[in-house]
Design goal:
Elements: E1 13-16, E2 19-22, H1 27-39, H2 62-73, H3 102-120, E3 126-129, H4 151-161, E4 168-172, H5 179-184, E5 191-198, E6 223-228, H6 234-251, E7 255-260, H7 277-288, E8 294-298, H8 304-318
Parallel strand pairs: 3-8, 4-5, 4-7, 5-6, 7-8
Antiparallel strand pairs: 1-2
Bound molecules: zinc ion.
Length: 319
């Protein structure tokens, strides 16, 4: 599932340590994946349908959605609004600029994910939503980490509300902890959130992703963080992956959503792990073996060349 209109979403900058730097969340990341998959025979590509905003409100507050909509509408083409302080306004970092087309671009990514989710409900047991902007850092009330609407959380809510799913597991394989997804489902047992990511003592988003964050209330025990140190390679990673997949199996979900980031690749300029192309084939194979209907949603991955080779390995193995 893919929408070519994602290319109009072009955040240009972010603020790192007080300085403006180039924003790596570029259209080329996703175009490279699409082209490589088509060349390798994955050419069953569909365009999204339009879904009502009520699905976005399953996850995000009206206050936040209105803020994002009005902020987008207030900007001229080419103009970017960026928060210059952490936690200022309804954006929790300084890396997530808003332009005049941000709101509609974020909504289109949601539509791609919801269309993919609706396909999964039929005879198809594996669907890939190749989207940007990504979603897993967005919380109920705030954007951040290049994310505006939490695509995976909205898809999970779709399965719970619309398809009466008995339980949804989210496996977050992006290099960065999905603080937004964790936060949204922290107090429920209807969603199991399992994440393997760079240790937040060292890496973004710093505020969350530690092992002692296990959920609360009815959600206690249904949030599992598996942080790994910088330069983790397949040996370390595979132990965490085995554990994550065991937890998912024991949960018996009706649906598995994979928040897939390729920023765990050794050649990624943002992430800090050392995974190689072939390791993604191993990951794909292991997920496929679970035999759970699976919706894969693209999150990060900032080296278009590595994204392309990795996606081909991963999807060949999982399919
Ligand atoms: Zn990431």
């Amino acid at each position: 599932m893919y929408d070519p209109k994602h290319v109009v979403h072009r955040p240009t900058k972010e603020i790192d340590k007080g300085k403006f730097i180039e924003n790596p969340e570029k259209p080329e990341r996703i175009e490279a994946i699409k082209d490589a998959l088509i060349m390798n025979g994955f050419d069953n590509i569909h365009s999204p349908n339009n879904f009502p905003m009520s699905y976005v409100y399953l996850v995000h507050s009206e206050r936040y959605v209105n803020w994002l909509k009005n902020k987008s509408a207030s900007l001229q083409p080419g103009e970017e609004y960026i928060t210059e302080l952490f936690g200022y306004d309804l954006c929790f970092d300084t890396g997530t600029p808003i332009s005049n087309i941000t709101f509609e671009s974020a909504k289109r990514a949601v539509d791609v994910c919801l269309t993919a989710a609706s396909l999964l409900s039929g005879k198809t047991n594996l669907v890939y939503a190749l989207v940007r902007p990504p979603g897993h850092h967005a919380t109920r009330e705030a954007c951040g980490g290049y994310c505006y609407f939490n695509n995976a959380a909205i898809a999970a809510s779709y399965f719970l509300v619309k398809e009466n799913a008995d339980g949804v597991a989210i496996l977050d394989l992006d290099f960065h902890h999905g603080n937004g997804t964790q936060d949204i489902f922290y107090d429920t047992d209807e969603v199991l959130y399992v994440s393997i990511h760079g240790d937040p003592d060292t890496f973004y988003p710093w505020i969350s992703g530690r092992e002692n964050e296990i959920g609360e209330g009815p959600g206690e025990g249904f949030n599992i963080n598996l942080p790994l140190p910088a330069k983790s390679d397949w040996r370390k990673y595979s132990e965490a992956l085995d554990q994550a997949l065991r937890e998912i199996k024991n949960y018996y979900p009706d649906v598995l959503i994979v928040s897939l980031g390729f920023d765990t690749h050794a050649d990624d300029p943002v992430g800090g792990f050392l995974l190689k192309d072939d390791d993604f084939a191993r990951i794909g194979k292991a997920i496929g073996k679970l035999k759970i209907p699976t919706l894969i949603i693209q999150e990060g991955g900032y080296n278009p060349v590595a994204n392309a080779s990795t996606a081909v390995k991963f999807f060949t193995a999982i399919a």
